Every structure is written in structure tokens, then in C-alpha cells.
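Incident log, support desk, overnight shift.

02:14 A customer reports that sequence design results differ from what the structure should imply. Their input is reproduced verbatim below. On-call engineer (initials T.W.) acknowledged and began investigating.
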């Protein structure tokens, strides 16, 4: 008898969730949600948070070697924004019951991933500009639709993140414009950076739709609003005119306007390379994780001190890990 009552309650909860999704409303932390929805969100938000935090490294590499005080101040602000994005996102994951300490451990152990793009090295200062233009540009394409994601805390975090990402893209483009009006060596530096980052930027949208098994369910749940291939196409269409204004060539001989589709046709990235980078064998994977672990270990005394302070002043239990 009691199990029948329980089943009715479960059905009512599932119906309530389905109604929220079909009405285009937001699911909030205290609402009932299926385990699959919760786990998919935790995985996606954690992966996003890790990407913001690891993503500080490639550009952070140039902070002490910026060519002027102005460039240093801009880059410092940008890298600091990325730390903020990571923190908003870890907070959003916490509203789903995930612990930030556990997510950090999973990142360091390699059981949770971050974007493949941050495993490539930054070889010249033009990379700072190209990351702003292409990498933050691709992030904007990915993230603007997430402002309408069905999970409230994630969608709201994305609104502020997207505003800051658009500043990041503009600062990158402005830096490249300045270099392109400089010397031949500077122009060559920009072109070299574009050649190295173009394909990895296209990989940021994830595998082709045919190899993306979770996309359909994520779209039914309103977590994702567009497929990987749709977003990749949108990015290419947005970027080609910007490349023309900048005066650089995108390294894809198959890139051509398709009048019928009203979009650009383009070549396929090297998906074998993508698989390698995602599985930990990219050029900088080991270095990125080693630096993240070292930073976490170096922060242990701060967490101990914060715990001691919380215990003595508020009687809090537990610890900052
Ligand atoms: Fe960011
Ligand atoms: Fe950014």
C-alpha cells in the first residue's frame, strides 16, 4: 500500500518537472529533478568551471612578459575574470549537491575533464590576442544559449559570464588589430597564431553530432539549446568576416561561402588529435594539471586557517578542503 502511495508521489514529482521543462520555465535547486538531469548538469558545470580555472594558465604565462603596462593591466583583468567565472560555476554546481572540494580532486585526478583548447601552448604574445578573439569567441557561441538553460543557477551565472566574455573577445581583437598595423614580423606572428589556434578552436564545440551521444537528451531537458555542429557553423559564419577585416587567412582550403545554405562550408578538424588531447595526451595536459595541483597544495594552509577561524568564531563544523 505504502509503495503505491510512494509511486504516486514519484509520478507527481516527475510530472511537475516535465511541466517546468515544457513550459520553458527554470528548474531551481529545491525542485525535484531526475538523477540523470542532476548528474548531467554536475558533469557539464564542473567541466565548465574546470575550463575557466585551467584556462587561466595559457595566458597567465604571459603576464610577467606583457609588452606594456597597458597590455599587462588588460591581461591581468581578463585572467582574473576567468577565475571569477570558475567560482560562479563551482557555486552553481554546489546548488546541485556537488562539493567544490570533490570537484577539485576529480579535476586533479583526471576523472573530470576540462576544455581541450587549454592543452595547447601559448608561444608568442599574438596568442593572447588570438585566444581572446577565437577561444573567447567560441566560448561566447557556446555560452550565450546557456543563458536560457533550464537550470536556473547555471543560466543566471551565464548572463554575467557572457558579458565578460564579450569584453575578452574585443580585447583580443583590438590587440590583433594593433599588431596587424605594426611591422611585417608582427603580422607574421598574428598569422602564425591564427594557424595554430584555428582548428583547436573549432574542436571546442565538441565532436560532430553523429558522435555526441548525450546531446539529444540534454536538448530534451533544455540543458543544451543547439547541437555541436550548429554552434560550430555559427562560429565559422561569425568569424570569417572578422578575419577579413583583420587581414589574416584562416588555414582551411575548404572554407568557402555556400550561397544555397547562406553559410560557409568548411573542412573537418583532425578528430584523432581531439581524442588524443581529451584523453590526456595533448601538448600541455600534464603541465596544466601539475600546476593546478601545486596551486591547490600551496593553498592548504589558507584552507586550514579559514577552518580554524570559522570554528572559533562561529562554531562551524566541517572544514575547508
Ligand atoms: Fe571565462
Ligand atoms: Fe574569457
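02:41 Re-run completed on a clean worker. Output:
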Amino acid at each position: 500500500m505504502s509503495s503505491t502511495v510512494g509511486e504516486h508521489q514519484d509520478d507527481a514529482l516527475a510530472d511537475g518537472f516535465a511541466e517546468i521543462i515544457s513550459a520553458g520555465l527554470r528548474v531551481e535547486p529545491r525542485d525535484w529533478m531526475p538523477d540523470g538531469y542532476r548528474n548531467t548538469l554536475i558533469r557539464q558545470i564542473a567541466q565548465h568551471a574546470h575550463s575557466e580555472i585551467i584556462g587561466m594558465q595559457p595566458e597567465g604565462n604571459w603576464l610577467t612578459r606583457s609588452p606594456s603596462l597597458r597590455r599587462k593591466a588588460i591581461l591581468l583583468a581578463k585572467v582574473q575574470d576567468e577565475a571569477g567565472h570558475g567560482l560562479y560555476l563551482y557555486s552553481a554546481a554546489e546548488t546541485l549537491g556537488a562539493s567544490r572540494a570533490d570537484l577539485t580532486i576529480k579535476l586533479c585526478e583526471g576523472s573530470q575533464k576540462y576544455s581541450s583548447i587549454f592543452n595547447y601552448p601559448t608561444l608568442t604574445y599574438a596568442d593572447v590576442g588570438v585566444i581572446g578573439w577565437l577561444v573567447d569567441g567560441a566560448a561566447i557561441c557556446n555560452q550565450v544559449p546557456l543563458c536560457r538553460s533550464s537550470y536556473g543557477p547555471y543560466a543566471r551565472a551565464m548572463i554575467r559570464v557572457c558579458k565578460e566574455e564579450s569584453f575578452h573577445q574585443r580585447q583580443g581583437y583590438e590587440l590583433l588589430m594593433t599588431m596587424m598595423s605594426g611591422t611585417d614580423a608582427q603580422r607574421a606572428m598574428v598569422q602564425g597564431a591564427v594557424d595554430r589556434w584555428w582548428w583547436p578552436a573549432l574542436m571546442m564545440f565538441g565532436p560532430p553530432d553523429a558522435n555526441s551521444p548525450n546531446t539529444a537528451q540534454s536538448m530534451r531537458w533544455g540543458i543544451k539549446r543547439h547541437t555541436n555542429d550548429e554552434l560550430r557553423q555559427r562560429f565559422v559564419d561569425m568569424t570569417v568576416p572578422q578575419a577579413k577585416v583583420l587581414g589574416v587567412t584562416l588555414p582551411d582550403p575548404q572554407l568557402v561561402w555556400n550561397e544555397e545554405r547562406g553559410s560557409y562550408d568548411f573542412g573537418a578538424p583532425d578528430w584523432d588529435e581531439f581524442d588524443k588531447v581529451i584523453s590526456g595526451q595533448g601538448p600541455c595536459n600534464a603541465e596544466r594539471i601539475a600546476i593546478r595541483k601545486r596551486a591547490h597544495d600551496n593553498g592548504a594552509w589558507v584552507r586550514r586557517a579559514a577552518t580554524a577561524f570559522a570554528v572559533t568564531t562561529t562554531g562551524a563544523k566541517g572544514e575547508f578542503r
